[in-house]
Amino acid sequence: MAESALKKKENGRGTRATDAEETRFNILEVATAEFADKGLSGARIDEIAERTNSSKRMIYYYFGSKEGLYRAVLERAYTAVREVDADNRRDDLDPDAALRDVVGVTFDYHNQHPEFVRLVMNENILRGAHVGEVPGIRERNRKVIDQLRAILARGVASGHFREGVDPVELHMTISALCFYNVSNRYTFSFGFERDMSSPKALARRRMSVIDVIESWCRA
Description:
By secondary structure, the protein is mainly alpha-helical. It folds into 2 domains: 1-64, Arc Repressor Mutant, subunit A, CATH 1.10.10; 75-217, Tetracycline Repressor, domain 2 (Orthogonal Bundle). Helices cover 79% and strands 0% of the residues. It has 10 helices and no strands. It has helices at 3-42, 45-51, 56-63, 66-87, 95-112, 114-125, 137-158, 167-183, 185-192, 199-217.
């Protein structure tokens, strides 16, 4: 085959692969919003296809079924939040500063990605029926706990933190406080007449959550 023809063929393959990846990405983007807003039962493949200028057949080609698409959305969401944890190495920070950074980053992520909170809420309504099929979720979670365990150990050694704080309990408490600010934002804002989405309210709440967690761990 002539060199120019070979290059065209290779470029054609590269273009098709790129187009396929972009199509898959767009489907996941739209599907994330649909599943976050309407849950697994309420979301419609027809609507997702229409918003992506794709087709039901194409979606089923990539993901197999509506449930397969939902699981792909879950995998993408959990991978993204754990990548944020993994990308923030804190070995050069004092233990108290490292812990405060963990809490602050977690709070910011939840606030900036309310779709993640809604996906988690929807999956809990389904009693975790699909999360167990997300590849590698337990391994990623273990890395988060290992990081907290290391921060706590350094803090105990330096006298910053008390002994006996369970890193899993710590992670659960951080997640709960950061999660609540998004999951209950509208009902809390109405019931207590306080706009929980304003920059001032978010900054105040962020600092409160950080202080609560640090105080709980402090020696």
